[in-house]
Amino acid sequence: MSSLLSIGKSGLLAAQVGLSTTGNNITNAGVVGYSRQAAIQSDTATLDQGFGFVGTGTEVTTVRRYYDNFLAVQLRNAESNQASLDAYTKQISQIDNLLADPTAGLSPALQDFFNGVQDATSNPASAASRQAMLSTASSLASRFQGLSARLSEIASGVNGQITSNVGEINSYATQIAAINKTIAGLTTDGKAPNDMLDHRDQMLTELNKLIKTTVIPGDNNTLTVEFGTGQPLVVGGTAFQLATSNSPTDASRMTVGYQSDSGVFSALPESVLTGGQLGGLVSFRNGAMDRAQNSLGQVAAGLAVSFNAQHVLGQDQNGALGTAFFKPINAYVGVNSHNSPVSTADVSAVVTDASKLTASDYSVDYDGTNFNVTRLSDGQITQINPYPQTVPQTIDGVDYTITGAPVDKDNFLVRPTYTAADQFGVAISDRTKIALAAPIATAAPTANAGNAKISAGTVDVNYLTPGNALAAPVTLTFDKASGSLSGFPPAQDVTVTVNGVATVYPAGTPTVPYTDGAAISFGGVNFNISGTPADLDTFTIGPNVSGVGDSRNGALLAGLQTKNILDNGNATYQTTYAQMVNFVGNKAREAQISGSAADAAVAQATTQQQSVSGVNLDEEAANLLRYQQAYQASGKVMQVASTLFDVLLNLR
């Protein structure tokens, strides 16, 4: 009878555990991260009764947690990618909306400015037109500065979010390390506390939404959590703390690294910060954010430099050569704070050539012997040669000047266009100093017997070389017998270009052959003489002494709007800006499409994971009935055993 009672009791206890486990599943069905559990039964040892073996009942061997590590990892990775794309999309959408705005973007301000230049060119003597040109220039500068300020605000917001994410990562790492210790202490004979395992897995899920991690199983159900290329975050019961710090070469840029107990910060390569919100923010900042800031600066610097280059070749209303119309653009130079304190090296960089300017950043490094300038967009290296310098060296449209005494491993970050939009400003405020006229004037006297004509003439940058500017008129005389011109300044070479072929006549050459329509230049002065001159016909090239109504340089300034100046002479200001807008728009669209795909991947991974670990209430309801019936049946067994025992007692 005792054997039958024991069997019934074991069944009763097993059914009770099954009911408790099922009830626990039902009450936690809505808890995020909960994995369903099941009571696993097995029979107890059987006894040899001579005629055979008779069972002694059942027991619960374990409460199993339904969990598939492969599916869990798949879901965490999908959610990490989703969080990364969501963070990226939110940020790039701000830039996309900013740049593409038809009223607040740059294109309307550029158009208004050149409309002002064209109006002033059409009315060079009009004070109102000149003042309107200055006004549109100021509006353009304000637009550049406003766009730059907004991009800086977005960048500052990214810094704040990076700092916040790092704080959350540290919090989860600390919690995971603590629960690792607890789980290890409670794990006995391979059995672990299921609810704590669920809690830890949920923290890993939340952690992966911040940064993609790799989880490595350890002893006693502990875990090692790494990110990037094996950088540790949690090892057993130890959590490694991340921190943020300003970049040593750019105080406006937040970097991520390890923080030691002594407070020493060690920056990590940004390439290891992948996945999750942090990875999305870093990817956005290093890609679309930097591209937008540098490309906007490229337009600003290109416009300022090229417009100034043409403006200084003109003549203002006071009869003086033009000065810089826009303020100079100095490249941002960041000095690595880790440079040796004994180093006195200093790098300055000024944008001088709009056509060669790129939107890339540059690293300037001293190897103990030479300074090397590395273009970060493609890794191209240019050596500063000679060093020490005698004159600045121009690299990609930027003049580099390096002074002082460097030490090995000195490092500088040069961003030629990074702050150009913010620096963009109008350098003149006096409308009379707008150089719309050309500094030279040409004439063919009416007394000439031939029909040859001389063009109005232009000047190039060589005209600004000391000694080249015309102080007095130069008179060229045609000699019919020799078919040549004479009277050129004796100290200057003369270049004659016919059908694209240039011939240089050294300074002091007495006569230069005449060719109908040939382009002639000397000392930065350029003109053409065409037609058939008569013997002793003369042509005069001299200073422009009555240029108030002249707008030849103004026409050249207005022509810059449609001239391919940027990108090695392949793009205008507007097309360069349009390319930037298209790039940002395409990236925003790519992020949206990728985000939709990521959402689908998360939904699919969630379905697969829940098919194993999720609680099915219909199934649990069936289990309740099954365990209830088992409980009742086991009770009946014990009742029968009790009745039989009473029968035996009554036999006496």
Automatic annotation (TrEMBL):
It holds the Pfam family FlgK_2nd. It is found in: Bacterial flagellum; Secreted. One of its GO terms (molecular function) is structural molecule activity. It comes from the Bacteria. Transmembrane segments: none annotated. InterPro entries: Flg_bb/hook_C_dom, FlgK, FlgK_D2-like, FlgK_D3, FlgK_helical. Keywords: Bacterial flagellum, Cell projection, Cilium, Flagellum, Secreted. Its main location: other. Residues 336-416 form the Flagellar hook-associated protein 1 D2-like domain. Coiled coil: none annotated. Residues 92-326 form the Flagellar hook-associated protein FlgK helical domain. Residues 612-651 form the Flagellar basal-body/hook protein C-terminal domain. The keyword Secreted applies. Residues 439-543 form the Flagellar hook-associated protein 1 D3 domain. The keyword Metal-binding does not apply. GO terms for biological process: bacterial-type flagellum assembly. GO terms for cellular component: bacterial-type flagellum hook; extracellular region. NCBIfam families: flgK_ends. PANTHER family: FLAGELLAR HOOK-ASSOCIATED PROTEIN 1 (PTHR30033). Belongs to the flagella basal body rod proteins family. This is Flagellar hook-associated protein 1. The gene is flgK.
